[in-house]
Amino acid sequence: MKLLASISKYTVSKIITFFNKLTRKFTEHPHSLGETYMEHLSCALYYGLSMLLTGLAVIIHAFFPFIFVTTGSDLAKEICKDVDKREEL
Predict the structure, then answer these.
(1) What residue ranges do the domains of the chain occupy?
(2) What's the pLDDT at 50?
């Protein structure tokens, strides 16, 4: 019975250590920017989805140069400005 208890304590200890390390992996970078995980998630999703949609607009622009004339460069400037502002905090 004592063997089972010591194995259980060891296992629980290992599981807690694993989850602590995993949590740090998810929060280390966002915290370096002064953000929570959820704040960073929402910002990164916004950038990624904006880039995908803008990428489609730029592909359309490649075939029809009179459509979405500044869409790609406008988004690039907006994201660069926003990233620079976030890094200053």
Answers:
(1) 1-32, 36-89
(2) 94
Tokens of 86: 């976030």
Cα(4)–Cα(10) distance, rounded to whole angstroms? 10
- Distance, in Å, from the CA atom of 33 to the CA atom of 29, rounded to the nearest integer, reads 7
Q: Give the CA count within 13 Å in the CB-facing half-sphere of 48.
A: 6
Residue 8 one-letter amino acid: S
Give the ranges where the chain is alpha helix by DSSP (H): 2-32, 37-63, 71-88
Residues (pLDDT < 70) of the chain are: 1-5, 87-89
The residues near 72 (Cβ < 8 Å, ≥ 6 apart) are: 54, 57, 58, 61
